[in-house]
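User:
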Amino acid sequence: MTPRLHALFAHVLLISLALGLAPHSVNAQTESIADFYKGKTVTIVASGGVGGPIDLACRTVAKFLARHIPGNPTIVVRNMPGGGHVLMSNYMYTQAPKDGTTIGGVVNSIPTHQVIDGRGVRFDAGKFIWLGSTGFANLMTMAWHTAGFNTIKDVFERELLTGATGVGSGTYMYTNAMNAILGTKFKMVMGYKDSASVDLAIERGEVQARGGMTLTEVKQERPHWISEKKVVMLVQTGAEKDAEYPDVPLMHELARNDEERQILELISSPAALGRPFFLPPDVPAERVAALRTAFAATMKDPDYIATGNRLRLDMNPLSAERVTQLVNATVYTPSHIVSKARAALGTGKKDGGKSSD
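Assistant: Predicted structure:
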């Protein structure tokens, strides 16, 4: 038995022992998975266009995942951008084959969209089968070094001119949510064409700050901001702190009570999920186990890690269990928390979702 099959055997054995199955039946099941995938093509459906960051993440995983799936299937990437990832998510829920040959790629915003907005939703993110996430990147809110804002406490005391492209953009929604929920004084300067225009405005002194930029993006697009200490990180948005900024608070840590914490955690959930991969509902359990094992093994593959680091991808993976936990926390958020998060974000009434009281 190959090391890959041995790992899968061990994974399935634990499940099978819990179900009262004999070890010899587990071995037969593992071999049958290899028989199923041998000669098959597995499709990763990417929710972003060719050449974008989602496409890059999907194609990098596709390059190494096959070697960890019993039977070594061919893996291809199909791009399905549109509708803020809703198009691909609807396809995965309503049309994609449910036999373990179709994987959805990196739709971290869809659980939140389902709950807070709901427009166009024909899926239930709580019923997708999550394989794990290749990594998360917290969204940073930062001030220019000459602005005189050293911590987020300063933004409670005086206005900070903050550039934004428009309502609903990452440059607007997190800082505006802190204003609405916590009482910060980010003064939004609207109308910039894109995020790059906001960055240039900061460097020219038109505005003093921006939000909604991942640390990875800063390193890729404005590396001198960090190396030359041009920006001061004020807040990070996500589930846990980035190791490089242990003293910069998470947005939800600023909450004054449990209700505010829940609202801010819901708003933070896309950043917490990072780049998750998933299956449609009703895939046979033994193939789910095989693909989860293969995904976890890929995240530890030295060749994958070397390639991901070279491409400057986020390389802090999350397990299938952790991603499922985060998704369920979003999907089953109490309805009164959802309503207040929606108001803070300035979104309209949703027509879908699954929040509960």
